[in-house]
Amino acid sequence: MSVRVNPARAGRWLLRLVLLAGAVLSLIPFLWMAIASTHSTGDLFHSPPPLLPGGELLRNLARLQDTVGFGRVLLNSLGIAVVHTVLSSLISAMCGWGLAKYRFRGRGLLLGAILATMMIPLQVLLVPLFQMMASLGWVNTYQAVIIPFLANAFGILLMRQGFLDFPDELLESARIDGSGELRTFYRIVLPCVRPQLGALVIFTFMTQWNSFIWPLLMLNTEDKYTVPVALNTLTGLTHVDYSGLMLGSLLATLPLMLVFLLFQRQFVAGLLGGALKG
């Protein structure tokens, strides 16, 4: 008795196995980071390395708090990232709306200039930005970390693309009913572009949360450090606290995972927006 195999079904199962294997491989570094955070630094260099959780988690956590004040820097990073994400997303949405729906002289030139800014590497901007912050007296302040990069070219272009498909007839109806421009924007327009806005929130939050070079230049005192800057202090010339780095990195990923879980539907829909349109 011969068994017939459906090629399409077999292909789907093969694809699932490949994706499952890829998911497992991508989780291995996080699993090792979690295991390493429960061991001492000396245990990590044993041969073979530990493959099961150890009993040093609380001790590593206490040392991390005593060394860098991890609870404080975690709150610093969270406050900076939240404020920057809210302001940057709002600015990007308003700029994208203006470029998508308003006709004015020089709009194409302005759009080209915004695109050109994406080609400028961050390293070129560090010196003039630092001089600007120093002239304002903003060195070692949170506003120096938050404000300079609020206008995000990627965010503006992403929101503009979402606003291009918004029907002009709906805008005219709102204006005829007496709705002002700001009210129309916040009450009617923004709810319709939640996928793009959710994707922008995740991207902006992750970028600001992981930012290292600019906070390192701006923040001089330990009580104002962000998580990446504080973790960098665990790396010395003669000693590296690997278990502390692993634990700090593990704890630093939790807010990113939470933000992604909250906005994952909007993130996927925002990235695929327009892909199925004819």
TrEMBL record:
What are the TM regions of this chain, as residue ranges?
Answer: 13-35, 73-97, 109-130, 142-159, 197-217, 242-263
Q: Name one Pfam family in it.
A: BPD_transp_1
Q: Origin organism of this chain? A: Streptomyces boncukensis
Identification of the protein by name: Carbohydrate ABC transporter permease
Q: Which CDD domains match?
A: TM_PBP2 (cd06261)
Domain ABC transmembrane type-1: residue ranges: 74-263
A single GO cellular-component term from the record reads: plasma membrane
Compartment(s) of residence: Cell membrane
Q: How does it sit in the membrane?
A: Multi-pass membrane protein
- Coiled-coil positions are none
The record's keywords, sorted A to Z, are:
Cell membrane, Membrane, Transmembrane, Transmembrane helix, Transport
Cross-referenced InterPro entries: MetI-like (IPR000515), MetI-like_sf (IPR035906)
**Which family does the record claim for this protein?**
Belongs to the binding-protein-dependent transport system permease family.
One example of a Gene Ontology biological process annotation: transmembrane transport
Question: What broad class describes the main subcellular location of this protein?
Answer: membrane
Family annotation (PROSITE patterns): ABC_TM1 (PS50928)
Domain of life, per the record? Bacteria
